Amino acid sequence: MKHIYKKGNDHTLILLHGTGGNEYDLIPIAERIQPEASILSIRGNVLEQGMPRFFKRIAMGVFDMESLKEETKNLYEFIVKASKDYYFDLKKTTLLGYSNGANIAISMLYTYDNPVQKAFLLRPMVPTDVILSKTLSEVEVVILSGKQDPIVSNDHPTRLEKQFKALNAKTSLYVLNTGHNLTQEDLSILVKYTN
Asked: What sections of 5-155 are H helices per DSSP?
């Protein structure tokens, strides 16, 4: 997978962009919230009308479940390989996903037990109700949703919170007074969870 790796300290931020983004998009956010951390920023494998994504969709908010399953496996295997190639510990990693990137991060958490230490999920949806994981007891999950988000249904954040808590993840949900866009408030909240 196309990616950027930048060596920092022994904590690694794994960045997963939104639809139409690329591996450069979230680096400024990563550098703001945890400037000393190492960065692994990944570009999605799938193109939709020339726009990179992490998995296919059939329509807005309607996901191709086979693509989601396949690309979740591809992403997880890539991250495991990258951890060996770049010598970082998956138990000291944070997934930082925005929109489509957050959705595949959730799929990964729903598929593999305790794959990372933390997950920051910005404007996520529930990508699937198929949960294969037995436990996320070693994972801290922070969900940041927008109250006026035109893309994400209002019930998704609370459904995610419930599903993560059922897997014993340490879960925090914030519903901000904004839309699908990211704000300074998002960054301020994330900084609290990087110390």
From this structure: 27-33, 65-85, 100-111
